[in-house]
Amino acid sequence: NTPACAVKAIMAGLRGGSIPSYYREIYEIVCAEGETKVPKSICVRLLLQSKLPRDVLSEIWQIVDPKGQGHLNRDSLYKALALTALAQQSKPLTDKALDQYGGSELPKPMLGDLSDLRKLTIRVRRASHPTQLGFTYDQLLALDTLYLRIIPGKKGLILKHVEFILESHTHGTSIQRRYSDFEVFHEFLFARYPYRLVPRLPPKKVNPSSSFVEIRRRALQRYINIVCRNPVMAEDNMVKFFVTFSGKDFQHQIRAQFKGLPDEYVTNPLAPKAREFANLDLQKQMSAIREQIRNMQASLTALREVAQRMTERSISTADDMNTIATQLAFIGSETRPSAAWTQGGDNVWSHIKAGLRSLGSYFGQLSDKSKEKAAQESEGLIENISMLLAIVNAYQDLVDRREKGVMREHQAAISRVHTLKKHQGKLKARQDALKSDWVDTADQLGDQIVSEEGHVQSIEMRNYFSLYCMHMEAQVVGANMSQFGLIMQDMVDTQVRTNKQVQAVWEQMKPVTVKILPPTTALSPTKKSEWDALPTF
Prior knowledge:
Helix content: 55-70%
Order of helices and strands: HHEHHEHHHEEEHHHHHHHHHHHHH
Strand order of the largest sheet: 3-4-5
Low-confidence stretches: 1-7, 522-537
Structural class: mainly alpha
Radius of gyration: 36 Å
Number of helices: 20
Shape: extended
Largest sheet: 3 strands, antiparallel
Mean pLDDT: 83
């Protein structure tokens, strides 16, 4: 053990030396926001990055945590970093170890890439809090972003099909997939993760129209992003295989590699501890969460319908502006001479036609701006609402799946045991009057009860695990609710930006309308105000 005087001397040396910015950077990484203590589990992982022998690391830990508190404050962490640097230089950890740094910068240990340290710290902190998601919305987005693009032209000799390019930002891959690949993947994913947010797969259609294909492309893109931004499923080898495998015959390969893979309950190390996490309070909370999810479903559905109507109005406005532009161009381009009796001896109509031709181009611009607005509303507002609605729908499906599956199976198993015990009681009451083969039947019934009770316990543990998963997936939904703020921000920004652009075109049209008539036949102020009353939205 390091003497107490040596500990004090080393602390004094730490206070005398200059603290490198490297120390502060590490402290900000390993210390959670709003806290001042770094847990031992994270400190140990940090010091292991030094590659020092374990006996040396133990000695350093005894110095920095002599009372065995199981955590370090900022000064103790700095001391550990300084001692680690000295140990890496093969210098002894004595009471005079830091004396040479009085007034100069303390040594910096070699701990590898700090980005790796940041990821390591996050993993350790999440592992130490198994009932907390530990992911913000931005961190979920950082797991991956995938894009799905349609390959032009349909494939196949007889039955034509559409193929897509699937690009993964995280894996840096660009591969080909078709809808039937998603179907097979969905089947395996559903079997592997029955208690997770597996989103709905969009419908299939023979000889689909181009508009249907585009709608399905967007739905499939949402589908794979939801899967790859789920903290559990994102780490699954099967999911990684789907977004990275570029070889031939994907469907055969995924079946060959992952057929017979057990579901998450069998492989998750937290499954045996699920009873500890799924307490009575959690069950009460889940009841309230289910009600919130139903309300959110209804609200998001209504908002998406409004967003769709907004887009339809923008498209309608674009069509109207284009019609005006077309008609003005037609009238202004009329080349046949007007009858003399219609002109009244002047050339006003020719002057007006020239002005109408000029106005036509402005209305063409208004049509283009409205189309741009419709596209931004469709690709931004509607798509973001649809993504959030798909996540909420997936959670509602999870709730229904659990209630119709493991919960119902659990209740049925309990009912079977109760019925068997009831029959066993009747047989035992009449045992003296029964023949031996009836007694054997009673004994067999007892064996069956034991078997059924074991089955009940197994289903009960699965039920607890499913409840635990629902709790964690509810936090995934909660983290994604940050998207609601982005949705509203995007809607306001789109309306402000596009409406300003449209208004600018209207403003440019005003002086043109004034010049439509020759100066000698200028409109009276009252008439002129009608032109000024054009809408400026």
